[in-house]
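stage 2 :: seqdesign
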């Protein structure tokens, strides 16, 4: 499951990526547009600046702005920037104490599902998320906090069509 922290990081990056020009915007503006609780923005901005994905400037004209090419940043990069793990099943965690870990008849399915999820996250760039928003007719509004999984699902459907 994508944690709120990962989702807030991605929503912040998408918000900054769709902005035109090099102007700084306040983290409060981003939080308001994206439906992110403002109390989380200092932590979000700290992670993004530490990774070098966002520039920040203090002062009356300060704020944050994107510092990377959206094509160079994947959803998996953002997940990896946190201690969060995106597991389809907790038993796949290397620290799992599941007594049936080696003999579970479902383990193969969980591993295959995990590989698919990881593949989608590694293959989805910030630029893809922006393009998906445009294809979904959302270019004139910012996604709500709950839209990210839907955008990823739509992107996956476009890049990996299901064949019967």
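stage 2 :: out
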């Amino acid at each position: 499951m994508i944690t709120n922290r990962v989702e807030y990081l991605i929503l912040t990056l998408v918000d900054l990526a769709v902005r035109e020009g090099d102007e700084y915007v306040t983290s409060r503006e981003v939080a308001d547009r994206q439906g992110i609780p403002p109390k989380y923005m200092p932590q979000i901005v700290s992670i993004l600046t530490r990774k070098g994905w966002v520039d920040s400037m203090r002062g009356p004209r300060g704020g944050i702005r994107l510092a990377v090419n959206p094509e160079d940043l994947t959803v998996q990069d953002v997940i990896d920037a946190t201690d969060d793990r995106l597991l389809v099943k907790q038993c796949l965690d290397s620290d799992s104490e599941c007594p049936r870990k080696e003999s579970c008849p479902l383990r193969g399915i969980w591993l295959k599902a995990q590989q698919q999820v990881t593949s989608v996250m590694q293959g989805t760039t910030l630029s893809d998320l922006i393009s998906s928003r445009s294809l979904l007719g959302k270019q004139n509004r910012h996604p709500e906090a709950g839209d990210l999984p839907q955008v990823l699902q739509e992107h996956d459907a476009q890049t990996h069509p299901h064949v019967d």
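stage 3 :: structure notes
- The domain at 4-159 is CATH 1.10.10.10 (Arc Repressor Mutant, subunit A).
- The radius of gyration is 17 Å.
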